[in-house]
Amino acid sequence: MAYCGLSDFISDLEKHQELLRVRTFVDPVLELAEITDRVVKNRGKALLFENNGTSFPILINGYGSDYRMALAIGRKNLEETGAEIESLFNSLIKKRGNLFNKLSSLPALAKLAGFLPSQSRRKGICQQVIHHDPDLGILPVLKCWPYDGGRYITLPVVHTVHPETGSTNAGMYRIQVLGKNIAAMHWQRHKTGANHFEAWKIHGGRMPVSVTLGGDPVYAYAATAPLPENISEYILAGFLRKKRVKLVKCITNDLYVPGDADIVIEGYVDPSGELIREGPFGDHTGFYSLADWYPEFHITCITHSVQAVYPATVVGVPPQEDAWLTKATEKIFFYPLKLTVQPEIEDFHLPDAGVAHNLVIVKIKKTYPGQGMKVISSLFGAGQLMLTKYLVVVSGDVNIRNYGDLLLHILENTRFKTDLLLSTGPLDVLDHSSENFSFGGKAGIDATLKLDEERDKIEGLHSVKQPDISGLTEKISEKINIPVAGISILNGNLPVLIVALNQTLNSGIAGDCKSCFREEKMASEFRLIVAVDHTADINDIFTIAWLVLGNSDPHRDIEFIFDNTLYIDGTIKAYRTGGFSRRWPNVVCSSPETIKTIDQKWEMLNVGPFISSPSIKYSRLIIGEKDEVIINHP
Question: Which residue among 37, 216, 283, 431 is the active-site one?
Answer without folding.
Answer: 283
